[in-house]
Amino acid sequence: MSDGVEQQARELLRAAALEARLIPDPYGRLMRRARRQQRARVAGVSILALAGVALTALVQTEITKSSHQGNGTPTIGLPKQLISATASVGSSSPSPSRVPQTTPTILTRDDVVRHFLQSNSRFIQNVVIPSFGGRVYCGIATLAQSSDGTKLYDWFYCQEFYDASGTLGRGSAVSGPILLRIEGSGAQSKVVAWQVPRNGSQYEHDVRLLFPPDVAEKILTTNGAVEVTPSEAQLVAEARTDLARGLL
């Protein structure tokens, strides 16, 4: 090979080497770009996942906060230490005693009140306090009412009945005055609030605070001798019927 040809070949080789250094591999560049995009997508998914977890935690926190707020028992302008509550017949919680499995016949306001006392969990837990897990049956007597009919001054008698190995057992029983706040009329009435006086030394004070003077005097002088409807005997008969039907 002549010197000229050899020199020319060297120059061609140097040029090829230089070109290889200056021009990057297009396939390698594409692969690197794909890897970068994949890492970005993975990072994006991770960020979204973390954001979702944070949002879920926030929502759960807000729900938890909401469930622990507004649980104070509203009263109707009376001291908070009195036993009181608000609840409608339609939205009252299931009672700790067994709820009747038959639909009660509600024709009058008294039917509404009686059903409320027999099924409202707050009233049952705080006033009747069943000791055998039985059902609560109540009779009532209206002593007076406000001129607009929105407040009832009633006397109640409630008795727990339960199945004692096939016989009718009698558990907790309680009677006393109760102030009821009512909306609507007749069978469309709804109990929206109730209050009862405390026992012991606070009883007379609370009775005079909750009830009009003439009603308070009647309550304080009756010694519990108030006839309710249904009567105690009728409540026993009703409970016996339910026992025979397997509802206790």
What does this 3D model show about the protein?
With 248 residues, the chain is of the alpha+beta class. It has 2 domains: 3-64; 83-244, no CATH class. Helix content is 45%, strand content 21%. The chain contains 7 helices and 5 strands, in the order H-H-E-H-H-E-E-E-E-H-H-H. It has helices at residues 3-22, 26-67, 109-119, 121-128, 203-210, 213-222, 232-244, and strands spanning 83-85, 135-145, 151-164, 167-183, 190-196. It has a 5-stranded antiparallel sheet with strand order 1-5-4-3-2, sandwiched between helices. A hairpin with a 5-residue loop joins strand 2 and strand 3 (151-164). Helix 5 (203-210) runs antiparallel to helix 6. The longest helix is centred in the N-terminal third of the chain and has 42 residues, at 26-67. The protein is elongated.
List the helices and strands and how they pair.
Blueprint: H1 3-22, H2 26-67, E1 83-85, H3 109-119, H4 121-128, E2 135-145, E3 151-164, E4 167-183, E5 190-196, H5 203-210, H6 213-222, H7 232-244
Antiparallel strand pairs: 1-5, 2-3, 3-4, 4-5
Helix pairs in contact: 5-6
Features:
7 helices, elongated, 5 strands, 2 domains, single chain, alpha+beta
Mean pLDDT: 75
- Order of strands across the biggest sheet? 1-5-4-3-2
Q: Report low-confidence residues grouped into runs of 5 or more.
A: 20-31, 45-81, 86-101
Give the count of structural domains.
2
What is the helix/strand order? Answer: HHEHHEEEEHHH
Rg, nearest Å: 39 Å
* Secondary structure: helix percent: 40-55%
What is the overall shape? elongated
Please give the count of helices.
Answer: 7
| Amino-to-carboxy terminus distance | 118 Å
Report on the biggest sheet: 5 strands, antiparallel
